[in-house]
Amino acid sequence: MFLTQEDVQALILTARLAGTTTAILLLVGTPVAWWLARTKSWVKGPLASIVALPLVLPPSVLGFYLLLALGPQGPVGRLTQWLEISALPFSFWGLVLASAFYSTPFMIQPLQAAFEGIGERPLEVAATLGAGPWDRFFTVALPLARRGFLTAGVLTFAHTVGEFGVVLMIGGNLPGATRVASVQIYDYVDAMQYAQAHHLALVLVGLSFLVLLVLYTRRSVSAWSKV
Amino acid sequence: MKYLKTLAALLAVSLLSFAQAGDRITVAAAADLKFALDEVAASFRQTHPGDEVIIAYGSSGKAMAQIQQGAPFDLFFSADIAFPRELVKAGLAAGDVKPYAIGRLVIWSLNLDAAHMTLSSLADPRIQRIAIANPKHAPYGQRAEEALKATGMWPKIESRLVYGENISQTAQFAMTGNAQVGLIALSLVLNPEMKGKGSYSVIPQNLHQPLEQGYVLLKNGANKPLARQFATYMSSAQARAIMVKYGFTLPGEAKK
């Protein structure tokens, strides 16, 4: 067969990780992006910088701090011990935590731009028509920002699929839990199994291209429809 | 304008730093040599002032793949003597493969008393995570798997194993306490950073194939006298003393 059973397992795991990360970031990122888009507070600058940090920091910085924080002496490690839940390093949920940090700007920045693009006017109109703040958010802002949500969701998902350095540092390479497709390819190359590396790598190239094609085609179609 | 001048000055300085008097060689080395070979190179430099020995550490498998694809290394110190032998067969070497050390595997733990552990102790349910190097391509990982299989422990603890990309990452998993126990290289345990931390016991050598390590002069280094001198230095009394200090058994010496 073209892909081994392990490859399929790695691909499914990658999709699960990317999906879970995207879902969590949608929940956490939306209010942050909304706040950033509308605030005039001095906190905006520092917070926006923190959100953008994963864009510039090497994955090894995040990996290093996560390794220390999640370990038995670290704050998160102590918390999981105290709560008597299973330890995070070398686990799927540890990777979800790492990916959520690592993909934060890919969720928040497009959403923030979309919310800013709406402007004050539609919200003010809604307010004069008697809509409360929650109503304005769900019936005016969310529908108007839907393209931003598509971009943010697709980019977060795709960026998590493309994650490698952090996973390598805190994953421990466990099949079905932390051995995602990118790590599997790296292992093939290290073990000099180039044919296997090609197969899985080509699948990733194909899938990633398709995802981005959907995103960019939709974008240009909607841009055209405005003309 | 001012900025441009500063920038130009900085560029000039950084370019100048490349033009230096001595020779320079680049060495690819197995991760278990990290501290030992650094010290050998430092000692070598004392007799070769002005020359530079640049060492890139990593998994032997990766270095091997890079050399096959034309990476400009002059010497290759592998953790598995089979790799340089393959390079000789492929016509990528400029000399014979020489054994330089035999590595040892240890059970190491940050918080548990590993000094009194054997591989059978790993069945202890308190040990939730055991780090080994990836047996697919790391020599220390392959030997760890052999030893665990030889003692019948493999099926009991396989679900608790985590895999490091190379032996120093495996040590890192154990050193940060994220894995309670690591099966790692003695040479890493004996380095100054790790000394005094945790505890360890050496795994009997009869439980696995020997970790016979070998180096080879590569095509790229064939015409560099410095590469040959550094290779020769490995069998000097000073270099051998350093290797012994880091727990390596030397070729031609009685095994423990």
Keywords:
heterodimer; A: 227 residues; mainly alpha; MetI-like fold; 11 helices; globular; B: 256 residues; alpha/beta; D-Maltodextrin-Binding Protein, domain 2; 2 domains; 5-stranded mixed beta sheet
Describe this structure in words.
The complex is a heterodimer of chains A (227) and B (256). Chain A has 227 residues and is an all-alpha fold. Chain A has one domain (5-226): MetI-like (MetI-like fold), CATH 1.10.3720.10. Helices cover 79% and strands 0% of the residues of chain A. Chain A is built from eleven helices and no strands. Chain A has helices spanning 5-38, 44-56, 59-70, 75-82, 92-118, 121-128, 133-144, 146-161, 165-170, 181-190, 194-226. In chain A, helix 3 (59-70) packs across helix 5 and helix 5 runs antiparallel to helix 8. The N and C termini of chain A lie far apart (48 Å). In chain A, 32% of the residues are buried. The mean pLDDT of chain A is 89. Chain B is α/β, with parallel strands linked by helices. Chain B folds into two domains: 2-102 and 210-245, D-Maltodextrin-Binding Protein, domain 2 (3-Layer(aba) Sandwich), CATH 3.40.190.10; 105-202, Periplasmic binding protein-like II (D-Maltodextrin-Binding Protein, domain 2), CATH 3.40.190. Chain B contains ten helices and ten strands. Chain B has helices spanning 2-16, 34-47, 60-68, 82-89, 139-150, 154-157, 167-175, 186-189, 225-233, 237-245; strands at residues 24-30, 52-58, 75-78, 98-103, 105-109, 130-133, 161-164, 181-185, 199-202, 211-217. A five-stranded mixed beta sheet of chain B has the order 2-1-3-10-4, with helices on both faces. In chain B, strand 1, helix 2 and strand 2 (52-58) form a beta-alpha-beta unit. In chain B, helix 2 packs antiparallel against helix 10. The longest helix of chain B is centred in the first third of the chain and has 15 residues, at 2-16. Chain B starts with a helix and ends in an 11-residue tail after the last helix. In chain B, 48% of the residues are buried. Classes of the chains: A mainly alpha (227), B alpha/beta (256). The A-B interface holds A 67-68, 70-73, 77, 87, 89-90, 168-170, 172-174, 186-187, 189-192 and B 59, 61-62, 64-65, 111, 128-129, 131, 134, 136-137, 162-165, 169, 172-173, 176-179.
